[in-house]
TrEMBL record:
Source species: Marinobacter azerbaijanicus
A Pfam family it matches: Alpha-amylase
Protein name as annotated: Sugar phosphorylase
Claim: Glycosyltransferase is one of the keywords in the record: yes
Domain Glycosyl hydrolase family 13 catalytic: 42-474
Entry keyword Cytoplasm: no
Keyword set, alphabetical order: Glycosyltransferase, Transferase
UniProt cross-references to SMART domains, sorted A to Z: Aamy
């Protein structure tokens, strides 16, 4: 692996250096191959360190209290979005990888959370803040930092570079030995690191070890697809990037056998799947196509594209799985729908989200055109109506249906905190920050939040209570193990269904969802329930006595038909 990335370097010496930095001996035993570091009880919460706050208290302490008080038996893992000192992008422009933002708390607060939950931290590996010490040293031409950032020339062939933004790719910087042009995939304040310098890799191995020693066991490799750059290429998904992921995984799992690598690659589905490698790159990849396809399904009342996508998804090898989510701190990506939705269908979806108060962000293509990149909208508002009829009274039911589907799919379910709470579009925050993504990055006072969650008339209470109930059911079902068998059912365009079977073959669950705003009939003969088993709906408790009969599903109702309680 090192030979592919660094053909001109003494890779034997480099390997010894990396092992020493990670605190590993050459004879450290390898972890078991194809080991699943998860089961059906795993559910992840995604949150910023300061999403829930209380006066006169550090937010990480408040987050711990919220987890213990409201989610102790609901989630097993928590993704704390970048909690480091930063200069922009709500944390993703890191100034110091080894410090906790003083306004959030201290490492001890992270360690306390890690004592009760699996903690996922962002390894913001592609770029660093232009206000960081490393970049200041880059401008002074001293180490550490002198050769840590990627440079190019305006005369280089950059015509094929794939961009997720419309900002300039190169930015001129005055240094102590003249003007240089640094590569900025995302923004002028986020300068791309130069992994062609093996010392940068060694620095990040040291950072990883530091996180592991403080209880972090899941590493989200942020924007990793852009890691290796070369003029004259798209500078995305290059082979060196894949080899570097393999190296980092190898080091992590030798240090901590239950450590997990997740790649954040918001790209078309086929490209995303390559980050599994041969079960030797990411342990887990995000199911980036799920959010836009599921939202599209529920606002159109037609599951054709969602079903086509599900049938095309390969079962993950043992030791790998998918991370299923419908919303996150970012917007709903549109690139993962390439080849799945037509341009006309994408535009209809965009128009629908805008009618529900959403916004649209753009990216610049290699030919200089701006294309829609993501839809910025709170999920609760994204599902407030349909594409044809606008807002309606089915918002809550549609929202719960979306999560019932996500909870049952192959993979690990992850809930963005604002979805778990039913938070609406935060238009004031967008106006305050000037950033479209702020629409789904609001903050809650914990006392006010707890009052809302305790009020039976509040939609926040209704969302939170029902999602917690569904999660509790899910966590008890072996057929919902992230690697359990999954097959798509063919029940028409208004009923989305799939079958899960436990790895011991002793439990089957038929997951059927009415994704329309009209009543639908499910003929039990169409799904081949085994007549010698006793079947019941895990969600409602309804027992199925007549296997030749049918079920009537209300708009957006779901059933999980299981042959065991």
């Amino acid at each position: 692996m090192l030979d592919v990335v660094y053909p001109a370097v003494d890779t034997g010496f480099l390997a010894d250096q990396l092992l020493k930095t990670m605190g590993l001996k050459p004879d450290t035993p390898a972890p078991p191959a194809h080991q699943n570091n998860w089961d059906e009880s795993d559910v992840m919460l995604i949150t910023y360190a300061d999403t829930v706050q209380r006066s006169n208290e550090k937010p990480l302490q408040t987050l711990f209290q919220f987890l213990e008080g409201c989610l102790k038996d609901t989630v097993s893992a928590v993704h704390i979005l970048p909690f480091f000192p930063y200069s922009s992008d709500d944390g993703f422009s890191v100034m110091d990888y080894l410090s906790v933002n003083e306004s959030h708390g201290e490492w001890e607060d992270i360690e306390r959370i890690a004592g009760n939950y699996k903690v996922m931290a962002d390894l913001v590996i592609n770029h660093m803040s232009a206000r960081s010490r490393w970049f200041e040293n880059f401008k002074k031409r001293v180490d550490p930092g002198k050769d840590y950032f990627f440079e190019a020339r305006p005369t280089d062939d950059l015509s094929a570079v794939v961009r997720p933004r419309t900002s300039p790719l190169l930015n001129a910087v005055q240094t102590d030995d003249g003007e240089r042009y640094v590569w900025c995939t995302f923004s002028e304040d986020q300068v791309d690191l130069n992994f062609a310098n093996p010392q940068v890799l060694n620095e990040f191995v040291g950072i990883i070890r530091y996180y592991l020693e403080r209880g972090v066991t899941i590493f989200r490799l942020d924007a990793v697809a852009f890691l290796w750059k070369e003029a004259g290429t798209p500078s995305i998904h290059l082979q060196q990037t894949h080899e570097l992921i393999k190296i980092l995984r190898l080091l992590i799992e030798h240090h901590t056998p239950h450590g997990v690598v997740i790649t954040e690659t918001n790209v078309p589905n086929r490209e995303n799947l390559t980050y599994f490698g041969n079960a030797n790159e990411a342990h887990v990849i995000y199911n980036f196509s799920l959010p836009p396809l599921l939202i599209n399904t529920l606002v159109t009342g037609n599951c054709r594209h969602l079903k086509t996508w599900l049938m095309s998804m390969p079962p993950a090898q043992m030791g790998t799985t998918y991370l299923n989510f419908i919303a996150s701190h970012d917007g709903v990506g549109l690139r993962p729908t390439d080849g799945l939705l037509s341009e006309q269908e994408k535009q209809r979806l965009i128009n629908t989200m805008e009618s529900f108060g959403g916004k649209v962000s753009y990216r610049r293509t290699p030919d200089g055109k701006d294309q829609p990149y993501e839809m910025n909208v709170a999920l609760f508002d994204a599902l407030k109506g349909t594409a044809g009829r606008g807002a309606d009274h089915w918002q809550l039911h549609r929202f719960i249906c979306a999560h019932t589907i996500m909870l049952a799919l192959e993979g690990i379910p992850a809930f963005y905190i604002h979805s778990l709470l039913g938070t609406e579009n935060d238009r004031e925050r967008v106006e305050h920050t000037g950033r479209l993504r702020s629409i789904n990055r609001g903050q809650w006072n914990l006392d006010r939040l707890e009052a809302e969650l305790a009020d039976p008339l509040s939609h926040h209470h209704k969302v939170f209570t029902e999602l917690k109930r569904l999660i509790a059911i899910r966590r008890r079902q072996p057929a919902f193990h992230p690697n359990a068998t999954q097959f798509t059912l063919h029940l028409g365009l208004q009923l989305f269904g799939f079958w899960r079977q436990s790895m011991r073959r002793d439990q089957s669950i038929f997951c059927i969802h009415n994704i329309s705003d009209e009543v639908q009939q499910v003929f039990l003969g169409d799904i081949n329930l085994i007549g010698t088993d006793q079947w019941q709906d895990l969600i409602s408790g309804l027992k199925i006595d007549d296997l030749s009969g049918s079920l009537t599903l209300r708009p957006y109702q779901s059933v999980w038909l299981s042959n065991r309680e």
